[in-house]
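Before any further analysis, backbone shapes were mapped to integers, which produced the following:

***
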Amino acid sequence: MDLRELAIEFTTAMAGAAPEARVPTCQDWTARDLVGHIGQGPRWVAEIIRTGVPTPPPDPRDAEPGPKAEWAGWVVAGIDELLAAVAGAGEVWTIVGAGPAEWWVRRLRADLTVHLADAALVTGVPYAAPTALAVDAIDEGLDLLTTPGLATFPGSRTGTLALHATTGDRWAITSDGSTWSHSTADPDTTLSGTPQDLLLVLMRRRPVDAVTVIGDRALLDELLTYSF
């Protein structure tokens, strides 16, 4: 599923949301704010790619998605604007340093994969992330987690936390958030579940009891508190 298809799925899920409905997993956002974020983000990135000038992320509350009937078209138009800017672009600014413009497509795809869960919570529609998307969103999230300066850990716990997916995918994360790998080494804490459940627990969209936890629970609590 590509970024545009994800955007369409998101707007379909949000069709049943009242604009002022609260999004319980997104601080004090309303449904309109969530739509604003999804439509505003790609426009913000497209402008950075076109101009080469990085600017602070915009506030979703400042977005103008229009009346609810126009939300779907507005969101998809933002994705199209981004994809047009990415096409033919070379190295651009990203939040982790200079990189290919396609970096932003992956970043927004991972972001949308998680925010689809938020949409499902608001409207009560089923949520099912394709396995490949959930796996890549975990990879991408761990890349961000281990980028110096993007997350700060207190260092009160030491050890390795592992994610074991039912698909056979494996991840290992050091407790200080400095490194991760597709490792099968013996961890201090292990989370086991589907890729979707592992992703949503890491992103605090589902409670920890949605997966199986073995080992040092405090290591997991610290990771969830200071990272995603």
In short: The two ends are 24 Å apart (CA to CA). The mean pLDDT is 94. The chain has two domains: 3-123, 133-226. Strands lie at 91-92, 99-100, 160-165, 170-174, 180-181, 189-193, 212-215.
